[in-house]
Design a protein that fits this description.
Structural class: alpha+beta
Helix content: 10-25%
Largest sheet: 7 strands, mixed
Order of helices and strands: EHHEEEHEHEHEHEEEEEEEEEEEEEEE
Number of strands: 22
CATH topology of the largest domain: Rossmann fold
Oligomer: single chain
Strand content: 35-45%
Length: 406
């Protein structure tokens, strides 16, 4: 996973795992990736096509530690030494950031990333009218995912006059009110590092690390998967396939057996955890919160290039059986973008976001607000789970609502 940590505090030489995942969401070119860099020191767009096009294409990840200056009291930083007075800062917590692509053609990628978020920073450009199309879609997406703790970054204030910034601010306030979203608004200029301390302060105040029940069985969403072996590695030195994502409940330890559903061939498989790591280094065990990677006994050829993205990981015997069909009770968004018709037709193709998995399906039966969708491949899901629904509109997959599994 493309993760780095900035000046991570250690306790007795042990690696610290991040306690919360915070998503960066919003319209394309609002400055999400620049804000991640300002908050972590890491530019997460490293894929060649991302550098070429100047936009995020994949979900990006980066970690940072927050410090509070004991002398300045209110000054937060990602550096242990206070930039103002030079005093040694007090460690607050380690945070994982999830950078979601904002382009409309990548909406389904953003939806899969929303499953990993516990809170979000909604980035809105001060030099554009609010709301833009993906400002609406992204806010809808995280509300469907159950994310309630949100901070708004009114970015690019360096590009507008005071009057324009105030007008944009009023647009943001009206937008949040219309979408029943309560959030603190922080004006920022990511490239100039303006108000980053105030943004961190708002994050610390409004996006708490969630509390988890460690006694519940393991449930983990896979957001990325890799083959970490270099070309030419000798067979005896090959490392197993790596799965990256976040634990939603329970915990995981080295040497533990885990189950994966639906599995690469549509059948659940069991493997062993050989190693665990986060951005800062190895872990003996991992808990919910933050982004981790686990090395397994899986053949790396089936984990390379994100082939296992979207898989459920859990304690053997606790995961749902893969299914090739899904019955949903559908609710349409009240304020979907682009005037998309609020209807789903027989034989219509849809994309369902099942946790961190995007799955193409076809509606084969429907009555009232209930539909049955035939999936292109087997997927794993629970009764009562919310599934985001996207339909094709003007050659783009657009979020139109969600369905509860019945």
């Amino acid at each position: 996973m493309r993760c780095v940590s900035i000046m991570v505090k250690r306790a007795k030489g042990k690696t610290i795992q991040a306690s919360v995942n915070i998503g960066l969401i919003g319209h394309v070119d609002a400055g999400k990736t620049s804000l991640v860099e300002a908050l972590t020191g890491q530019w997460v767009d490293t894929h060649s096509e991302e550098l070429k096009r100047g936009i995020s294409i994949r979900i990006g990840y980066a970690d940072a530690c927050f410090y509070l200056c004991p002398k300045c009291k209110r000054y937060f930083s990602i550096k242990e030494k206070c930039p103002y007075c030079g005093a040694k800062g007090e460690f607050q917590r380690k945070v994982s950031f999830v950078d979601a692509p904002g382009h409309e053609t990548l909406m389904t990628t953003m939806l899969s990333g929303a499953a990993l978020m516990h809170g979000a920073i909604l980035v809105i450009a001060a030099n554009e009218r609010c709301p833009q199309a993906q400002t609406i879609e992204h806010l809808n997406a995280i509300q469907i995912s159950g994310v309630k703790n949100i901070v708004v970054a009114q970015n690019k204030i360096d590009l507008v006059s005071k009057e324009q910034a105030l007008h944009n601010y009023k647009e943001i306030v009206a937008f949040l009110k219309e979408y029943n979203c309560q959030a603190t608004i922080i004006p920022t200029a990511a490239h100039l590092r303006v108000n980053i301390d105030l943004l961190i302060e708002a994050i610390e105040k409004h996006i708490a690390s969630p509390k988890f029940d460690a006694n519940k069985p393991l449930k983990m969403y896979c957001g990325r998967s890799f083959d970490i072996n270099k070309p030419g590695t000798k067979p005896a030195e090959l490392k197993g396939g790596v799965l990256g994502g976040t634990i939603m409940q329970g915990g995981i330890k080295k040497g533990q057996k885990i189950e994966i559903s639906p599995g690469p061939l549509g059948e659940k498989i069991v493997t062993e955890v050989l190693d665990i790591s986060c951005a800062d280094g190895p872990l003996e065990e991992a808990k919910p919160g933050g982004l981790i990677a686990i090395e397994t006994q899986l053949d790396p050829s089936i984990t390379q290039n994100d082939q296992m993205r979207g898989q459920l990981i859990g304690k053997p015997g606790t995961l749902p059986e893969p299914s090739e069909a899904m019955e949903l009770e559908v609710s349409f968004l009240e304020r979907a973008v682009a005037n998309i018709p609020k209807e789903l037709k027989m034989n219509e193709s849809v994309v369902l976001t099942i946790g961190s998995m995007n799955m193409l399906g076809k509606i084969v039966k429907g009555k009232g607000n209930r539909i049955i969708v035939e999936l292109k491949k087997p997927a794993a899901f629970w009764k009562g789970q919310n599934i985001a629904i996207s339909k094709l509109h003007n050659m783009r997959w657009r979020l139109v609502g969600y369905g509860k599994v019945v």
